[in-house]
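Work Package 3 (structural annotation) set out to generate three-dimensional models for the target panel prioritized at the project kickoff. During this period the team completed the workflow that converts sequence records into discrete structure tokens, so that structures can be stored uniformly alongside our sequence database. As a representative example, we reproduce one entry of 115 residues exactly as it appears in the project archive.
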Amino acid sequence: MRATREYAGLPPSGAAPPGFFVTTTVKAVRLRTLPTEDDTLVQEVWMVYDRHGPGSGGGPDKNPLTDQMDSIVLVWEDGDWKLTEEYDSLKNYPIVPYDPDSPKAWQHGWWQVDR
């Protein structure tokens, strides 16, 4: 978050200036249960998303981030899902990228997110 704020020309911490907002729209997800030796429930989540911020003067973003891909790993602990890096070594990069028109993407586990 700090790097994102600095990239936007904001101080590394603190409140956002009035009128500043960022919208992230997740387009697709790929979930996979990671195998653990002790049967801990761990999920790998890949997301394809677009991110829009305000443009100069408050207008539309002229250079949004589109078709970005990132992943997180979640572990089930104390009755809730929690972010973790402990199992990152078990992750794998999707062999088939998300494409809404690709049967192979669907076979590889991508799910389109409808709004």
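The mean pLDDT is 87.
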